[in-house]
Design brief:
heterodimer; A: mainly alpha; MetI-like fold; 13 helices; B: Rossmann fold; 2 domains; six-stranded mixed beta sheet; four-stranded antiparallel beta sheet; 38% helix; disordered N terminus
């Protein structure tokens, strides 16, 4: 049964207008935008080059050491070292480092953008009510929809992949920074106000330290979401493990897809453990002071 | 705590302050000024009266207690003094400066240097150690961390928490946490201490300890303390003056004795009904007249004449500086009528008297009068006679017969009589 929704306006004309406007932006500002985002590309390439320049065992020891510092658990240390070793064992070391670089760069930039936005949101109810629907849209809009304009602006490559990843991954850190600061005990805030703390002193000496466990949870989620984007990002030229999965699909090679997929799971587990351990340690510090 | 009255300007003056919560406080203010009741305003326009037309003078160096049950507006009132809450109308003067006219920088300065605050639920910074909590007010002022910590250590010792500097608040008991809160407030050397139900969250025994400690500290520090409480016993223990609030209105303000002996209305009367007056009413307020004689003039004839003239049973003997040295009863007089003049001049032969100072409470002197007909002798700080308290006088005061008027200088008649 066909639904006869009346044509209230000519949507075709509207769509053409939108496309024309966007094309105009691409034609007139495409190059400038590409130039503007060049430093980001350099950052991404720099991290990737560093990870590949370092001997594999150094990277393995560094990341295993980081996991131990965060968790103080030999089980986590051993698990991390094993999983890092398997990355290379599966022949996925190089794409894994490319994926790691993309994930780290995207997370770093998401944190740099997200925490100040979250702080601003926590200070203004107006901004919060404006931002929340935008964040909802960013998280629910199918990713391919905003891949199109990014690819049009920058052409296929690492920059649109990175930007799309950031847009997808930044909402949790914004949300949880806002939430964490808003949930700081109002009595503590009142106390420091009574002692004459300026808003800046309040922010840095009380609000951020007390919100840190929540902010860390946000960073953890952001990391995981950035990682979940790698397959899709590889479709527009990001390379890495996602590209291996993509090749597996294109060539119908189950083994390649499986090994690359496992490698992604390993990276996810390692960084989830690291971030969670940090978050838990902070929580304990606040609860028992130890 | 001293009860001296000064004619100086009050440290804190609250003048006709109103606070109305709701969508349009100014509109509701007019209705409140016309006399609309709390429930009327709430039903008419959804406004709540937090505070209605309160004026209070808080003298420097005193502990001023604001007392009321929950919803009386007492916590709202204290937050007006450092402008954590802005009044809807009225004035708040600190050292004569209108707090409401301060700009942002001046307000920060007021909060940093001139007053500090202690909170009901401590409100310590959970992520900072005891020493950093105590130093917090100083670091906010911009004091170097090393110096701030050094000064914090002194305050920590003062409140008896030495050795706990590097613990975190969660590791401490409630009483210890509030000591940290108190040390934090004292660390900035502010002259005004705002204490919002500071001891209400503590166990009764700990609360008494903290009250004692505050009284000790106040005896040396002479801060101007504004103390909020819902506990009348606490108010009576700590307060030089007490203001009683109900539903945002001031019901009575006065010294603890005035409130106990002359409650302004039924509400206050109901409040004070169950209080142990013996712990509050000072002997200075219930002294009675007694016939006296100077020791050099003492002989049996004169003593007998004085007793007859005053129609009393006991004669108090003073030295040349009006200090009581002994007492004589009629029976004593009859028994020793034949003694020599020099025997009479030796004060160690006379009946012993128990002296209490003017500031003592009735409970402290009860043991002296309970088993004897000799009254307890009330003296001032120099040891000179103020008057006496008899057994019946003490019982009258405990049973709430407000006689004589508190503050009536019974001692003056005494001096005229003996001069």
């Amino acid at each position: 049964m066909a639904a006869d929704f009346p044509d209230l306006i000519d949507t075709r004309a509207l769509r053409i207008w939108i496309d024309d406007q966007f094309n105009w932006v691409v034609i007139n500002f495409g190059e400038e935008l590409e130039l503007a985002f060049l430093p980001v590309l350099h950052l991404l390439n720099g991290i990737e080059d560093l990870l590949l320049w370092l001997p594999w065992y150094v990277v393995l020891v560094l990341i295993s050491g980081l996991s131990y510092l965060a968790s103080r658990s030999y089980a986590v240390l051993g698990g991390t070292a094993l999983m890092m070793f398997l990355l290379g064992f599966f022949g996925m070391w190089e794409p894994a480092m490319a994926t790691l670089a993309l994930m780290l760069t995207a997370t770093l930039l998401a944190v740099i953008i997200g925490i100040p936005l979250g702080i601003a949101m926590s200070r203004s109810d107006g901004l919060q009510s404006g931002m929340l629907p935008v964040l909802d849209i960013m998280q629910t809009m199918p990713i391919f929809v905003y891949l199109i304009p990014f690819v049009m602006l920058f052409g296929p490559g690492k920059i649109p992949a990175l930007l799309a990843t950031i847009v997808f991954a930044v909402p949790p850190v914004i949300r949880l920074t806002n939430l964490g600061i808003r949930h700081v005990d109002p009595e503590v805030i009142e106390a420091v106000t009574a002692f004459g703390a300026t808003p800046r002193q309040k922010l840095f000496s009380v609000q951020i330290p007390l919100a840190l466990p929540t902010i860390m949870a946000g960073i953890n989620q952001t990391t995981m979401m950035a990682l979940s984007m790698v397959v899709i990002a590889s479709m527009i030229g990001a390379g890495g493990l996602g590209y291996q999965v993509l090749q597996g699909i294109q060539r119908l090679e189950v083994s390649r897809g499986l090994l690359a997929g496992l490698a992604i799971v390993f990276i996810a587990i390692i960084f989830d453990r690291i971030a969670q351990s940090y978050g838990r340690k902070m929580q304990q510090h606040l609860n028992t002071g130890g | 705590m001293s009860r001296k009255q000064t004619s100086e300007q009050p440290k804190i003056q609250i003048k006709n302050v109103y606070k109305i919560f709701g969508p349009d406080p100014q509109a509701a203010l007019e209705r409140a000024k016309q006399g609309a009741s709390k429930t009327e305003l709430l039903e008419e326009s959804g406004h709540t009266i937090g505070i209605r037309d309160i004026s209070l003078d808080m003298p420097a160096g005193e502990t001023f207690v604001v007392m009321g049950l929950s919803g009386s507006g007492k916590s709202t009132l204290i937050r007006h003094i450092n402008r954590l809450i802005e009044p809807t109308a009225g004035q708040i003067l600190v050292d004569g400066d209108d707090v409401l006219q301060l700009d942002e920088q001046q307000l920060l300065d007021l909060r940093r240097r001139r007053m500090s605050m202690v909170f009901q639920r401590f409100a310590l910074l959970p992520h900072k150690s005891v020493i950093d909590n105590v130093a917090y007010g100083l670091t906010v002022q911009g004091v170097e961390r090393a110096e701030a910590r050094e000064r914090a250590v002194k305050q920590i010792e003062l409140v008896g928490l030495a050795g706990f500097e590097n613990q975190f608040p969660r590791q401490l008991s409630g009483g210890m946490q509030q000591r940290v809160g108190l040390a934090r407030a004292l660390a900035t050397d502010a002259e005004i201490l705002l204490m919002d139900e500071a001891f209400s969250a503590l166990d009764p025994l700990i609360r008494t300890d903290m009250q004692d400690q505050l009284r000790e500290l106040q005896a040396t520090l002479h801060k101007t303390i504004v103390f909020i409480t819902h506990d009348l016993d606490e108010a009576l223990r700590l307060g030089d003056h007490i203001a009683i609030l109900k539903d945002g209105e001031l019901r009575q303000v006065g010294s603890p004795e005035e409130i106990l002996l002359h409650p302004a209305d039924d509400y206050v009367e109901r409040f004070v009904r169950d209080v142990n007056r013996g712990r509050v009413v000072t002997v200075g307020s219930i002294v009675e007249h007694i016939p006296t004689l100077r020791l050099p003039e003492l002989d049996p004839q004169k003593a007998s004449a004085q007793l007859d003239q005053a129609d009393g049973d006991t004669l108090l003997i003073l030295d040349d500086d009006s200090r009581p040295v002994g007492a004589i009863s009629r029976r004593f007089l009859e028994a020793n009528a034949g003694r020599s003049a020099s025997w009479w001049q030796d004060s160690s032969n006379l009946d012993e008297v128990h002296t209490v100072t003017r500031d003592s409470v009735i409970d402290e002197m009860l043991p002296y009068v309970s088993g004897s007909d000799t009254p307890a002798v009330v003296v001032d700080d120099e040891g000179q006679l103020v008057g006496v308290v008899t057994r019946s006088g003490a019982i009258d005061a405990l049973a709430k017969v407000p006689e004589p008027e508190p503050g009536e200088p019974a001692g003056e008649q005494q001096e005229r009589a003996s001069a």
